[in-house]
Amino acid sequence: MKIDWTKMGHRTHKQAMALATILASALLTINPAHAGSISRIEADGSQITISFDDLVEGASTFSLAGPDRIAIDVQGGKAGRGGFATGIVKAVRQGQYNPNTARIVFDLDRPAVITNGSFSDDGKSLNLRLRSVGQNQIASGRQSFLPPLKFRAEPPKKSYSVKMSLGKPKDSVRLPKIYGPDDPSRPLVVIDAGHGGHDPGAISPHGDAREKNVTLAIARAIRDRLVAGGRVRVALTRDSDEFLVLEERYGIARRLDADLFMSIHADAAGNESASGATVYTLSEVASDREAAKLAARENKANIINGINLGEAGRDVSSILIDLTQRETMNVSADFAKLLHRESSRQMTFRKIPHRYASFVVLKAPDTPSVLFETGYLTNKDDVAFLNSSQGRTKVAAGVASAIESHFARKLAMR
Ligand SMILES: [Zn+2]
After folding, report:
1. Beta-strand runs (E) in 178-268
2. How far is CA 338 from CA 98, 255, 332, 344, 390, in A?
């Protein structure tokens, strides 16, 4: 658009300015689907900076041994110009891994891992911190990084237009009561109290508290808080000491066409000093070994005497995770960050508050889902907090505030 300012009267100038403002705000809110190319890569001793000429969807990193390398996949990225490296990084290579993913490989002088990282506020660069480690300290998981929501490219349409049937939901599971405003245009949140019935979950060595009871009390506190807020609708997967297989839990959310699914748990650890909350979202690869172990433990809830009670067998589960829409996973990850932000004033989180793993209960492909490990039943302070009504009130306040912020835009547009 060519604007010749000098020939314009005051009025046209004003109109042009208004148009420019509309265009500028449109640019801020519309995420273009085209990919950003890698325009620059810089690596020095402890830092890697990757710049893009346009928005990308996200990035994930993983380490490889023998020879030592770090690979970075940029989703919604195009391979571009080469990089500049000093220190621990010997060389930088990049190529197009698949049509939607650029891969950058850093050849290392000695073993190193990415300790943390983030996108810049405008989403145009990714900053990663690098630390050298011993040969056997190379973590096997993938770490994911997302640009801020406003500055994130959308994945190609077809990757999230997959609608699929998960098989007939069991008729025997009745749908729960929906609390809150009698208005179907309000967002619906399904809160899932982990475990139940014959499956107690973790048992506290301090006073015998059982995870199934702790999670139900927290789920009810969250429901009551959301109902009191009056902004969203809410349902519980169970409101009694009842056993549900994992697929029934997210199945309820899908049948109710829920906008958000949240499974409540409380962890256990061999080390009694371990404490604090963690929020998990779904990923094909766990972010660390501990997250992978926890997912394996939680996924065992379906297995009794060696028989998997889950409706989806092993095959279906693996297909499900392949087809899981990245869009849903991104919304889940955004909510996880919000949950940490809103709850950290109310309760203590672990050092890495958001982790990824392959939890069966999070596998609904079209419902944004998080699993909230609210603390450790093996930790004296955590169990006292989670098992008290003051503690539950605080957890519920943080969760409700995150949920209301998450839906704020949707609620404002009503
Ligand atoms: Zn659990």
Report:
1. 188-193, 233-236, 260-267
2. 31, 26, 10, 10, 22
Structure tokens that stand for 220 in this block: 């009810």
Phi, psi of 214 (to 5 degrees): -60, -45
Q: How far is the CA of 176 from the centre of ligand 1 (A)?
A: 21
Cα-to-centroid distance, 414 and ligand 1 (Å): 36
Whether this prediction's pTM lies above 0.70 is answered by no
384, amino acid identity = A
Ligand 1 centroid vs 298 CA: distance in angstroms? 5
Spatial contact of 134 and 111, defined as CB atoms under 8 Å apart = yes
Q: Residue 407 pairs with which residues in a beta bridge?
A: none
C-beta separation of 68 from 110 below 8 A: yes
Q: What is the pLDDT of residues 36-92, one digit of tens each?
A: 999 999 888 788 999 999 999 899 888 877 778 888 989 889 888 767 777 888 888
Distance between Cα 329 and ligand 1 center (Å): 21
Q: Are the beta carbons of 72 and 145 closer than 8 angstroms? A: no
